[in-house]
Amino acid sequence: MNLKSLFKICLFALLIVACKSDVKEESVEESVEKTTTEFSFNVEQFADIKILRYQIPGWEGLSLKEQKLVYYLTEAGLAGRDIMWDQNYRHNLKIRRALENIYNEYSGDKGSVDWKNFTVYLKRVWFSNGIHHHYSNDKLTPGFTQDYLNELLKATNTKLDGAAFNAMFNAEDAKKVNQAKGVDNVALSAVNFYGPDVTSDDVINFYKNKKSPNPDRPLSYGLNSQLVKEDGVLKERVYKSGGLYGAAIDNIIEWLGKARGVAENDAQGNAIDLLIKYYKTGDLQTWDDYNVAWTAATAGNVDYINSFIEVYNDPLGYRGSYETIVQINDFDMSTKMAVLSENAQWFEDNSPLMDAHKKANVVGVSYKVVTVAGEAGDASPSTPIGVNLPNANWIRKEVGSKSVSLGNITYAYANAGSTGRLKEFVHDEEELKLEEEFGGKADKLHTALHEVIGHASGQLNKGVGETKETLKNYASTLEEGRADLVGLYYLYDSKLQDLGLVKDWKKIGMAAYDGYIRNGLMTQLIRLNIGDDVEEAHMRNRQWVSAWAFEKGKADNVIEKVTRDGKTYFNITDYDKLHDLFGQLLRETQRIKSEGDYVAVEALVEGYGVKVDQAIHAEVLERNKQFTAAPYSGFVNPVLVPELNDAGEITAIKVTQPEAYDKQMLYYSKNYNHLPDVN
Description:
This protein is α+β, with helices and mostly antiparallel strands. The chain has helices at residues 64-79, 81-88, 92-105, 113-128, 146-155, 162-167, 200-208, 246-261, 266-281, 284-296, 331-342, 344-349, 393-398, 407-414, 421-425, 429-454, 467-470, 475-491, 495-498, 505-521, 537-552, 575-595, 598-610, 614-624, 661-671, and strands spanning 42-46, 49-52, 225-230, 233-238, 302-308, 322-329, 365-377, 386-389, 401-406, 559-564, 567-572, 632-635, 639-644, 650-656.
């Protein structure tokens, strides 16, 4: 599960974050630790989006062979870029291409409000890989009329009509992913994982009949296919060469083949071979074989993520979104943080989980800090800050997992400028000082614990199905909240100081608790429109964790709600008791997962994580008006430029920065245009 916490992104010389790859945001508050640099991280800002850039430190230290490997893997990732667009919504590619043609060809009045609104809309579409907001899942609202768009279409000789045109303006397909209670989540989700007449019951019943050859190693049924009805009969359209998205996949395979030729070692090369085989066949057993091989391939300077991986965009959690990240190992930082992986068993043994839910042998948790060299698909422009894979519970248990923190991404966030929001929402000067001195370190360590310890902890009861089957639409938010709670529980523990990770464990824990409660109950609400429910999995988990702790601690006033000068604050009065509450909730969330208790997870999430206190929400939005910084950030990617000799051989690869956001988006659309409008 990619993670995309959600935490404040700050640079800390010894502690670097790792978090689920679908965790795609920096905090709505500012980073408090920065490094002086002349590099310009900021590109532009529009609507609720800020575009940044990142560097690739250490590039010159790679050999030419290693640079070629990075280049080939990056090209393989970009080759599948349009898959993500089509997965997000069936009309996305047609709409994008029409809008881009207008943008390139229009020679009329570009000073008008309508044209400016058109360009902002296109930039938002680029950022979200489609016409639905990347985070809220709501359909983006054009700031121009249908008549104006028709004028632009006519002026540029561009065709966009019928359902695709109407989709930009009508109320249909309003949510990319609909997680609401009491509705047909599949039928009411616009995401293109299912045919328009497929229902939630269809999906559940279809996969109920799928039996893995080895029940103890269940295959990831549904991960790499679209489920449709043909003549009333359900059928999977598999993503593979010769199948759905075959044209793009063939290009991915070609670049992966080149990468295989410069693999750093046999283990890495064998894993790439299996990935190529998987793309050619679509076979899910090959997918598992690949993940086992990939997890074990830990040597070398270069690694990657590539394929259909995270399931957050599927309302029922079956289908994986296309995603790629190419990364270079930061050996120095990885060595400093290896202590967490080395002590994973201690954390498991000393957790508040029921004994039956603890792993007797935590295996193969590798943790590295890496430098991103390129991203595509669901990881771009809105990027994770860390990744833990593979997702299959049985592989995590038997083989292990890889956890990585994207060090240069967090560095870019930390140095892109502050928002000023922190001082507005802290309760008092003591809380502000704690945050300023310890908040950045606490958040980095929280994310590392979330990823390395949290997602690797616990086990399912024997005979209990995968969480996507038992917990259904609540599986993702339960898992993210569970991992958050592992981090919260251990952040307030002297063990961190014993391991040499912190100098004052108590203040680190206090700062972490302050920030989490402040964000979960207040500041993250700036991402919602008034009246909205919380729907995104990570926002839900932060709210249900915080709201549960607030309510359960009322008798002892563990967290007090303070009103001062017409403003609301949440003040933690007893950190020890809050630590105990987090432990109780962690124990319960693991029980829910281990036992597959759908009734309990529904009560937890719906009772604490969905509905918003409307008075506080209105207040937060009003208090936030003074700040101009956008609540969401994403990145353009550095450009790897190969230099060739007369024989056409690569002699060097240079790293350049894109001139502008729009130029990179248009370049991508022109050069990685491998799919038709309709697939």
